[in-house]
Design brief:
The complex is a heterotrimer of chains A (282), B (298) and C (241). By secondary structure, chain A is an alpha/beta fold. Chain A has helices at 24-28, 71-78, 106-115, 124-127, 134-144, 150-163, 180-191, 210-227, 238-244, 262-267, 272-281; strands spanning 10-19, 45-55, 60-65, 86-94, 97-100, 117-120, 198-202, 230-235, 247-252, 255-261. In chain C, strand 7 (172-176), helix 6 (184-199) and strand 8 (203-207) form a beta-alpha-beta unit. Classes of the chains: A alpha/beta (282), B alpha/beta (298), C alpha/beta (241).
Chain lengths: 282, 298, 241
């Protein structure tokens, strides 16, 4: 069934993040055509500018590009880790309920972050509190959404850990003593603890060795299939993008230079940089 | 050369000058108006070093009047070094009457205990607080903890309780058990034992907390809800003295001290010295209505 | 009733990284197709058959022209449709069976086949049962069902690819070389499978170099050369039968 076009889950309009002073020139004189994201006028850095896209429920969107192209900035803005300079983002978690998320109050942002979104960072230290056990980390999300029953928290944490294939007897261990792949799994458990409709994955497999990478990716793919969760996958690795995503946006110098279906981007890239990127893969 | 003639003729009543007293009183009013909220204050210099009860002393000296009757205890005892010296200081500076008797006092300064005897509506109870920030153990940055308080974001605090329950089977806060004041702010009740925590709830007296080193004041007004943090299935509980009793009075319905003798043998005695004295003289001082005492088998 | 109307379709690859070299893959393609029809695409290698098919599936972006597709939800121009609409169509109506199996590694053959069905059928075992039926029909050895297809032979991969495309009776099916590298008996089974789909109302476009397959299968045949259509002919054998 074709969903109506207004049935989107996340709508991003003109999202811009600039470090430093800015005027119209700052955005106009940077970007891929100038091959730079540093304003020649005042030296401000344009991390991302004029980002527009819609994400639909259950869809997986990839963001690909070289380091410093602004791909992580987008998800960090949407997850409130960074403050936007300009633009809007709307989230529609339920029918007839639209939240202008970037302009909400801090408490509301916390609620959204906790209940309607999940985030898996490249570095587990960003997503996990290493002073708390893995169960405590998952519990933090559950407690934030009002679950004040130790037994229930433990049951839910056990369920999540077994879903992400972390040995359940490690429930009360500190994540500092886990391997990198296992820390990522605990992070994933934490991210999906409250069954959010939207999940951000920021370079989740970068830095893991190949066999562990494969297992983490398999897990994410299976979870996506099972939970029907919408995801934004940020990666510089085209094979990760190919394996996980339906659609892809290619970024360079803080702009989206091309967006389309993932197989189209991989087989028929239009933009010069996208062609270079794809040819580098093979 | 700077002429220091502030105290050239005599000390001001209650040592602190009137302008500074006014500042502290204003901050106290704010603290009372927002139960459990930590109000920053000037923490002026005192002739004792910070961390030795200056916070409590600031509050006492800012609000004490000539008709007040002053009592001070240190961990339940009227006669410990800290208590004696501060009592002397307050007496020298104000010439108010001092007492050991809890019922008689109007102003009670304390370190680490609430008296066993029930507090009365006209009494003001003043705590010397070492660490006013209950969230410090889970968040080391002050700007973050203030934001957490502002947004009522206390999940981390509960996670630390959860961790304690999971690792040790119980919440391991022997003293300074975090409480929720008026359903809004989590507050550190200063390092009083868990035994005393329920006595803060809907207390008839006014409770004022001063942390001199950390420069914070906060308050629990009379008849304010003070609830220890707990989970639905793991409840707060107080110390259980069943099977132990005070060797002087044979009572165990009060907080007991453990005495260890040179030969290794142990004995127990009631910690609150004034309460112990009253029991010894066969008086019957009225205790707090602490619902937890009846729950545990004594 | 028409299901697909292609008009003025052309595709030019502009290779920026090769000094803006331009390759014209398709030139001014026009044809239309009835619902329930099977159309064959023939021509030499490099004549643009696969490009045309990929343009319809949006793996290639057409340069000019329109591809009007009559979905259950109304007409859609597949050149202009949004990514989201295209994804929805691919999930529900249009499937594509490529020459080469490109699958996610470390997924068993049976789950590869079920992939699309898992999206609608939450009970995995029901989906797997359907997949087993088709794999058995196509004669894939049973011990391979739970193995990873990346290591399979060409013929085995081909059949998995086909099974994946036909599972769930799609409305519109694009098949690239369904019978290459298959033995005569399996070829026969594949042809019967596709004809059976037609009976259930599916429309099929099928590329093949194999005359026998074309003869048996298609209603009309489009012959291509150098990116243009040279002839569109009805299949005389089918008309007779």
């Amino acid at each position: 069934m074709i969903r109506n076009d207004d049935n989107w889950l996340l709508r991003v309009r003109n999202l811009t993040k600039i470090y430093g002073a800015y005027n119209e020139q700052t955005v106009a004189r940077t970007g891929p055509e100038f091959n730079s994201n540093i304003c020649p006028d005042n030296g401000s850095i344009v991390a991302c500018a004029d980002i527009n896209f819609d994400l639909y429920p259950g869809e997986v969107l990839g963001i690909v590009g070289e380091s410093g192209s602004g791909k992580s900035t987008i998800v960090k803005l949407l997850y409130f880790d960074l403050e936007k300079t300009n633009g809007e983002a709307f989230l529609k978690p339920y029918e007839n309920d639209t939240l202008n998320i970037l302009d909400e109050s801090n408490q509301k942002k916390k609620f959204i972050r906790n209940n309607l979104m999940g985030m898996v960072y490249q570095n587990p230290r960003d997503g996990l509190n290493f002073n708390f056990s893995s169960g405590g980390n998952i519990g933090e999300k559950l407690i934030m959404s009002g679950n004040m029953h130790v037994g229930n928290i433990r049951n839910r944490a056990t369920e999540l850990l077994s879903k992400t294939e972390v040995p359940v007897q490690r429930l009360d261990d500190l994540p500092a003593f886990f391997s990198g792949g296992m820390q990522q799994r605990v992070q994933i458990s934490k991210a999906i603890a409250n069954n959010p409709p939207l999940l951000f994955l920021d370079e989740v497999t970068t830095g893991l060795d190949v066999s562990v990478q494969a297992k983490v990716l398999d897990l994410i793919r299976e979870m996506q299939q099972e939970l029907g969760i919408a995801m934004i996958v940020v990666s510089h690795d085209l094979s990760v993008i190919r394996m996980l995503t339906d659609r892809t946006m290619v970024m360079k110098n803080g702009r989206i230079v091309e967006s389309g279906l993932t197989d189209q981007i991989l087989q028929d890239p239009q933009h010069e940089y996208a062609q270079l990127l794809v040819s580098s893969l093979l | 050369m700077i002429d220091n003639n502030k105290y050239i003729n005599k000390y001001n009543f209650a040592f602190i000058d009137e302008a500074t007293k006014k500042e502290i009183r204003r901050k106290l009013l704010k603290a009372v108006a927002i139960p459990g909220y930590q109000v920053p204050y000037s923490s002026p210099e005192m002739p004792i070093s910070r961390g030795w009860g200056t916070g409590g002393l600031h509050v006492t000296l800012a609000i004490i009047g000539k008709d007040d009757v002053f009592k001070i205890i240190d961990q339940g005892s009227d006669a410990s070094v800290n208590a004696c010296n501060l009592r002397d200081f307050v007496h020298t500076m104000t010439n108010v009457r001092t007492t050991f008797d809890t019922a008689e006092a109007t102003l009670i300064q304390t370190r680490h205990r609430i008296t066993e005897e029930a507090l009365l509506p006209h009494q003001i109870y003043i705590y010397q607080v070492p660490q006013p920030e209950p969230l410090r153990s889970v968040e080391r940055y002050e700007n973050k903890t203030r934001q957490m308080h502002a947004e009522g974001d206390y999940a981390k605090m509960f996670v630390s309780l959860y961790e304690s329950i999971v690792l040790h089977g119980a919440v391991m806060h022997g003293a300074d058990y975090p409480v929720m004041v008026n359903d809004r702010y989590i507050m550190a009740p200063s390092p009083i034992p868990k035994w005393d925590v329920p006595n803060l709830n809907h207390s008839k007296a006014l409770h004022l907390f001063g942390a001199g080193r950390e420069k914070r004041l906060y308050a629990v007004p009379p008849f304010t809800k003070v609830a220890p943090l707990e989970f639905i299935d793991v409840k707060f509980d107080i110390e259980n003295f069943s099977g132990k009793k005070c060797y002087k009075t044979s009572s165990n319905k009060a907080f007991l001290d453990e005495l260890i003798y040179d030969d290794g043998s142990k004995n127990y005695v009631i910690n609150d010295s004034n309460y112990l004295d009253k029991l010894m003289e066969n008086e019957t001082p009225q205790q707090h209505t602490n619902p937890y005492i009846n729950k545990i088998a004594l | 009733m028409k299901i697909l109307e292609v008009s003025g379709l052309s595709k030019t690859f502009n290779l920026h990284i090769l000094h803006n070299k331009k390759i014209e893959a398709l030139k001014n393609i026009d044809f239309s197709m009835e619902e329930g029809e099977i159309i064959g695409l023939t021509g030499k290698s490099g004549s643009g058959k696969s490009s045309l098919m990929k343009c319809i599936y949006r793996t290639y972006l057409a340069s000019t022209g329109t591809i009007l597709y009559h979905s259950d939800k109304g007409k859609k121009d597949l050149v202009q449709a949004s990514d989201h609409e295209m994804i929805e169509l691919r999930k529900t109506e249009i499937t594509y069976c490529s020459q080469f199996l490109s699958v996610i590694p470390r997924v068993t053959a049976i789950d590869v086949v079920c992939e699309n069905l898992f999206r609608v059928e939450k009970n995995k075992e029901i989906a797997r049962a359907k997949a087993r039926e088709i794999l058995a029909y196509l004669g894939l050895a049973e011990e391979l069902w739970d193995a990873f297809p990346a290591t399979f032979s060409g013929g085995e991969q081909q059949r998995i690819n086909l099974a994946r495309a036909v599972l769930g009776n799609p409305k519109f099916l694009l098949i690239d070389e369904p019978t290459a590298s298959l033995d005569a008996k399996t070829k026969e089974a594949v042809i019967r499978l596709i004809l059976n789909l037609k009976k259930q109302g599916s429309s099929v476009i099928c590329i093949s170099h194999d005359d026998y397959t074309i003869d048996q299968l298609v209603d009309r045949n489009i012959e291509m050369q150098n990116g243009t259509i040279v002839s569109i002919q009805s299949n005389p054998k089918k008309e007779n039968s």
